[in-house]
Amino acid sequence: MATGKIYQDLITRKRQGRSGFAVLIDPDKVAPADMPHLAKLCNNAGVDYVLMGGSLVVADNLDACIQRFKAESNIPVILFPGSPAQVTPYADALLYLSLISGRNAELLIGQHVVSAPTVKASGLEVISTGYMVIDGGTPTTVSYMSHAAPIPANKPDIALCTAWAGELQGKHIIYMDAGSGARVPITEEMIHKVSNHIEIPLFIGGGIHTPEKVYANCKAGANIVVVGNAIERDPMLIQELAAATKEAVVTIKQ
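Above: the chain's sequence. Below: its structure in token form.
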């Protein structure tokens, strides 16, 4: 099991039933010059983590974006890579993604074999991640790139069994994602079913645009709620979305 500082924080959140909020930054959609402003917004909102990466990452901005962000903030930066090429030692940790909801061997293990030497040499805290794509009502980049059908949105039992498989294989976390630009976010029923029956932390992302949805996901059992697209359109949402997470934590404790 991972023993790094970030993973220990995630495990503590799971054990205590606490939720956190993460901002997803795609280096293809922002410039390094945008990082000081984003860092200030994240600092003021009390964001727990920043995820950095995307399905493609065409622009060569990853290193510079992380360095500029970290110059302005102590918030941990976690790589959310779309390929083995998206590994940089400037981050704090790496979600080492295995697409357990698909049947593409390259994304289950093939690309990991290629990236393993780079990952081992990076010095990053590596968090083995069972990545599950859930149908968000529209084709997404990750579905297209992976050549894998997503788990149907109305099949929480399939999601649970897939999450169990990942947990039994030794994954450190489960990440359920409706995908960037999803029309329909993951249901609270599915989140609740998976969260209540696994012992490892659960990340939820895709199609989350409002404080109400963040709050509902936290109440359903999400340990980390991840928002990217909505913040790309309106960075000022960071404050409201992070506040919804904190409100949910207080309510759960009561």
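The chain has ten helices and eight strands.
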